[in-house]
C-alpha cells in the first residue's frame, strides 16, 4: 500500500497532461481533440443577413404592448 502513492501521482499527472493536450487542440493534427463550435455554413444559409436590424432599448420600449 505504501508504493501506491508515487504511481497514483504519476497516473494523475499523465491524465492531466493528456487532458490539457486534448483541450488545447494540440492533438488536432492527428485527429484527436475537441469538436469546433463554429458553424460557418449558417451564414451561407441566411437569406439576407444584411437586413438584420437590432433594436435599441428606446425603440423596443416604445413598440412594446401595454
Describe this structure in words.
This protein is mainly α and 66 residues long. It has helices at 4-24, 41-45, 57-62. The termini are far apart.
Would you kindly provide a brief summary of this structure?
By secondary structure, the chain is mostly helical. Helix content is 48%, strand content 0%.
State Rg.
25 Å
- Extended strand count: 0
Q: In terms of per-residue confidence, which ranges show pLDDT below 50 for 5 or more consecutive residues?
A: none
| Content-based structural category | mainly alpha
Average residue-wise pLDDT: 78
Counting DSSP H or I runs of 4 or more residues, the number of helices is 3
Helix content: 40-55%
Distance between the termini: 72 Å
Provide key terms for this protein.
66 residues; elongated; 3 helices; mainly alpha; single chain
Secondary-structure map:
Layout: H1 4-24, H2 41-45, H3 57-62
